UniProtKB/TrEMBL annotation:
Keywords: Signal
Domain of life: Bacteria
Signal sequence coordinates: 1-19
PROSITE patterns membership: PROKAR_LIPOPROTEIN (PS51257)
Protein name, as recorded: Ig domain-containing protein
Length: 494
């Protein structure tokens, strides 16, 4: 006895049709040997559940076969290895099993950390004749068809062989919709993506695709003389310039025949990266798309299109930061790793005033502070995108130091002059951004003028203490107001 497998994993429904019969080899015997073979169930579903063999009413994919033999009308009893039973046709439709609990007919496997015994699947089994017969089992597989099982017994006196057969039909081959499309599936050539046309990284820009058309019990649809599958490019961000190819057909739509349920074609990319969406359509009405599609059965397939293949994910190098000083030029390059170069950088938000991030990752510019205020550290989100369109982000620390950038302030608060004496006094300011523009807002004594450059000039004819309000404006339009005291005194006497 040779085991065909350990766990006969089966997947579709099965039907059983029995045909009895007997035969034998030439020879002479005083008492004739006769053999019978029958199946309990003559209709099994295709094993679409991949269920294992079982016994009883909860075993829809398994049937019991009974074999018996007589000599001169009397049961042949107590004979070791009397019956040899063989699955001689329809090997893909199922397998034979003992299901007798004998450890020789089982294999131990690990399932979920536990040891379980799985019945072995066989092509041939050998059985004793206990009380004139024995039983064994046929378990349906995932393929529609007819399994022929033949059992034989040999008369030891003259070696005459007597046999009987039964046919087990797996799946309803005569159902009205048998063989009509019920599902369309696909398999793209590894690695299941395309390179864009003319990509610089030698990624193939054409791949093969297999479309698979099955009926309602998962069997391949039959071959046809007319096209039974239509494929077209439905769209996608990389669909421009893409085309399908099959035999002499090329373009955005093709029609083809399946062979044993499978059709082969190729997809070629355009110049853009992104995705290409294909739609594959069969017609359940008559398995023919050339005469119009009445009952469409369709499936979509999305193929990525890339410019290169990243060996490691795109990342931004850690611990990067920028330090700049107000009114001083800065230039610093940010660093990305892996992905597919070249990289494109961008800012999600706003850089500090005077600074910018270029698309090639350079932080440049001359930082400024409004009236000397705003020095400190800013967190700026920066993005980097590689050639495939993959994006990585990080928080970049940008520190702006004040340096010489001070707040605008007026430096003088009091002036002493002599009555009747002409004078000129230049106001001073610090910080801000020169040049400065000056203006008297209130309290300027009669006889004095204040120029835009901050020159207070003239003479005052009356002794006293005057409170003058002055305003200075820097280049950025920052304004500061201050009170200035003008003390006017009598001239000294000789």
């Amino acid at each position: 006895m040779k085991a065909l497998g350990i766990a006969f994993s089966l997947s579709l429904a099965a039907l059983v049709a029995g045909c009895g019969g007997g035969g034998g080899s030439p020879g002479n015997t005083e008492l004739e040997y006769k053999i019978t073979l029958r199946a309990d169930t003559k209709a099994l579903p295709v094993n679409i559940a991949n269920a294992g063999p079982q016994i009883g009413t909860s075993a829809p994919y398994t049937t019991v076969l009974h074999v018996g033999a007589t000599e001169g009308g009397k049961p042949i009893v107590g004979t070791k290895e009397a019956f040899a039973c063989n699955l001689e046709a329809g090997l893909r439709t199922g397998a034979l099993y003992y299901l007798d609990g004998d450890s020789e007919h089982e294999t131990e496997v690990q399932v979920g950390g536990q040891t379980v015994k799985i019945p072995n699947a066989y092509r041939s089994v050998v059985l004793d004749s206990n009380s004139g017969g024995n039983s064994f089992h046929f378990h349906a597989g995932d393929t529609r068809g007819t399994a022929r099982i033949t059992c034989s017994i040999t008369n030891p006196r003259d070696n005459q062989v007597t046999s009987a057969s039964v046919d087990i039909v797996v799946g309803d081959a005569i159902a009205p919709a048998a063989g009509m499309p019920a599902s369309v599936n696909f398999q793209a050539q590894a690695p299941r993506y395309l390179g864009s046309r003319n990509n610089p990284n030698s990624v193939l820009n054409s791949i093969s695709v297999q479309a698979m058309v099955r009926d309602e019990v998962g069997q391949w649809v039959g071959d046809t003389t007319s096209p039974n599958l239509q494929v077209y490019i439905h769209g996608g961000s990389a669909s421009a310039g893409a085309r399908l190819m099959h035999d002499r057909q090329t373009g955005t739509v093709i029609m083809t025949n399946t062979r044993n349920g499978v059709a082969n074609f190729s997809l070629s990319s355009g110049v853009e990266r992104g995705v290409i969406t294909l739609v594959m359509v069969a017609d359940r009405a008559d398995n023919n798309v050339a005469n119009g599609i009445q009952d469409p059965i369709s499936q979509r397939l999305t193929i990525p299109v890339v410019n290169g293949i990243a060996l490691k994910p795109l990342a931004i190098a850690p611990d990067q930061s920028v330090t700049a000083t107000c009114n001083q030029a800065v230039s610093m390059a940010l660093v990305a790793t892996d992905g597919v170069p070249p990289y494109t950088w961008s800012v999600a938000g706003t850089m500090p005033a005077g600074l910018a991030l270029s698309s090639d990752g350079l932080v440049t510019g001359v930082p400024t502070l409004q009236n000397g205020a705003g020095a400190g550290t800013y967190q700026v989100v920066v993005n980097v995108t590689d050639y495939n369109g993959t994006t990585a982000s990080t928080n970049l620390s940008v520190t702006v130091e004040a340096g010489d950038c001070k707040p605008l302030a007026i430096g003088d608060s009091s002036i002493a002059v002599t009555k009747g004496t002409h004078f000129a006094f230049a106001f001073s300011a610090t910080g801000g951004k020169p040049p400065y523009t000056w203006k008297a807002l209130a309290g300027m004594p009669s006889g004095l003028t204040l120029s835009d450059a901050g020159i207070l000039s003239g003479s005052v004819s009356t002794v006293g203490s005057y409170k003058m309000v002055v305003e200075v404006t820097d280049k950025d339009g920052i304004k500061v107001v201050a009170n200035v005291t003008i003390e006017v005194t009598e001239p000294e006497t000789p």
